[in-house]
Write a structure and sequence with these properties.
Layout (H helix, E strand, L loop, with lengths): L1 E6 L4 E8 L1 H15 L15 H8 L5 H19 L11 E7 L5 E8 L4 E3 L6 E4 L2 E2 L2 H8 L8 E5 L9 E10 L2 E14 L9 H5 L7 E7 L13 E15 L5 H8 L4 H33 L2 E3 L3 H20 L5 H8 L3 H6 L2 H21 L5 H14 L4 H6 L3 H22 L2 E4 L3 E2 L23
Parallel strand pairs: 6-14, 7-15
Antiparallel strand pairs: 1-2, 2-4, 3-4, 5-13, 8-12, 9-10, 9-12, 11-12
Helix pairs in contact: 1-3, 4-7, 7-11, 8-11, 12-14
Length: about 450
């Protein structure tokens, strides 16, 4: 066997692999021995017919496909290993039979998607935004009182109208142009006012209702609503309010924080909360700044990214989304069906972001190579010792059971830290504005169908 390689289109390499007649016949014989048990010929027990008999009965090419696969499996990855200094495969190859003539062997080709080179206009001397987040007293107060949630009691309210923050139990029935629509009707539905889980205007219109009250409310579906037939449409919902409940919280006292937070006093507890929020704010500022750096450099970078890399990144993004759905008890397949799109359409929404992520990673990899950043063994050992101390072990004890993947993670973390230290030092970093560490609530897909809900989809 011998092979040649040549650069192909859109970050591919074409491997042309030529096998002698002897190698080809040997592959066919191996294919016969492996698969003969699948074939039956009159006059022979199954799997016992000689190769010439099977070739005559089923056709001379009966073993060709298995023989091609054997040659591919035997030599393709060996070639990749030999050529790893020249290119890195990033997806499955497209295989083809280039030439096959009796007595002259066979020639196969493999068009391999490979990791592309990236052209970076420059990665120093840029003006790049740095992110910093302050923690306010309001942030601390709000976060500190979350501990009270677990001890809060839901109490029915009968002596006042409902307001933001209450949970109301309602029946509702929606119409558009006087006609009911799928998903627009529900009974005994619990809605937290102010949660933003229904379309704009709905929850605000319910506020002020009293138990037993009926009200017709007028709302408008957003122009980007998931159901095509409801986008931008005016709707009327007939509402009946069945019940109002509010949360009543215990008082935040020294006794409470001792029992629930392990703090001696409320003041100690507030100090701990602030320290945690400030650490989170610092980490968030660092992460956002590093993303800002990579985004700015990538904006002036180009690469011919093969589809295989984009699809692999989409796979990761979809898998991540699937895991988040699982925590809510929702299967990805059900969610996609709920949204009224095919899996292909669902995946396609990630294409732009996937390309951006791939380009960013290519940019990072190239700068690391050009600047020759690496992790010295002493640096890795120092990190391992630091982790060992955090769990009350010596470095020697810790190393005995350390996962090699963890060592790889530590190594990569050291390299990436050096990379961003270099980029921060060699670019003009500026702070545009200071922001609170308060982050908007993550939007989660709905678990129930309702055309009144922002994430709903009419059937």
């Amino acid at each position: 066997m011998n092979y040649t390689q040549a650069a192909g289109e859109k970050s591919t390499v074409k491997l042309t692999i030529k096998y002698t007649e002897e190698e080809w016949q040997s592959a066919i014989t191996a294919a016969y021995l492996k698969t003969r048990g699948k074939y039956s010929v009159p006059g022979f027990r199954k799997g016992k017919a000689p190769k010439p008999v099977l070739e005559n009965y089923y056709g001379k090419g009966v073993f060709f496909e298995e023989a091609f696969n054997n040659l591919y499996r035997e030599h393709y990855f060996e070639i990749l290993e030999k050529e790893k200094a020249n290119f890195t495969a990033v997806g499955e190859p497209m295989l083809n039979v280039e030439e096959m003539e009796e007595g002259k062997g066979v020639t196969l080709s493999a068009v391999v998607p490979v990791k592309p080179d990236v052209t970076i206009e420059r990665y120093t001397g840029l003006k790049i935004r740095k992110y910093e987040y302050n923690v306010t007293d309001e942030d601390v107060e709000k976060d500190a009182k979350r501990i009270l949630e677990s001890s809060a009691k839901n109490v029915e309210v009968t002596d006042r109208a409902c307001k933001k923050g209450d949970v109301v139990n309602i029946d509702f029935s929606g119409t558009v142009d006087g006609e009911k629509f799928a998903g627009g009707t529900a009974s005994d539905y619990n809605l937290e006012l102010g949660s933003g889980s229904f379309i704009p205007g709905f929850e605000e219109a319910v506020e002020g209702m009293k138990t037993g009250e009926n009200r017709d409310i007028n709302v408008k579906f957003p122009e980007d609503y998931q159901a095509d037939n409801l986008r931008g449409k005016d709707a009327v919902f007939a509402i009946k309010l069945n019940k109002i409940t509010e949360k009543q919280y215990p008082e935040l006292t020294d006794e409470f924080v001792k029992a629930h937070a392990g703090a001696e006093t409320v003041a100690d507890y507030y100090k701990t909360v602030r320290e945690r929020l400030e650490k989170n704010a610092a980490n968030r500022g660092r992460d956002d700044t590093e993303n800002s750096i990579v985004n700015e450099i990538s904006a002036h970078a180009t690469a011919e990214i093969p589809d295989a890399m984009v699809e692999s990144e989409i796979d990761r993004m979809v898998q991540d989304f699937s895991y988040r759905l699982m925590y809510q008890g929702i299967k990805l397949e059900d969610y996609v069906k709920y949204m009224g799109v095919s899996m292909e359409e669902f995946r396609s929404q990630y294409t732009t972001e996937a390309k951006k992520r791939v380009l960013s990673q290519l940019v990072v990899d190239k700068i690391v190579r050009e600047q020759k950043f690496s992790a010295e063994p002493s640096e890795v050992d120092a990190k391992i010792e630091e982790q060992a101390k955090s769990v009350g072990k010596t470095a020697e004890e810790y190393k005995k059971n350390i996962d090699p993947r963890q060592v790889e993670y530590i190594t990569n973390d050291i390299i990436i830290t050096k990379l961003f230290d270099y980029l921060k030092s060699n670019n003009e970093m500026y702070v545009e504005e200071e922001k609170s560490d308060e982050k908007p609530a993550d939007k989660k897909p709905a678990a129930k169908k309702s055309a009144a809900k922002k994430t709903g989809k009419g059937e």
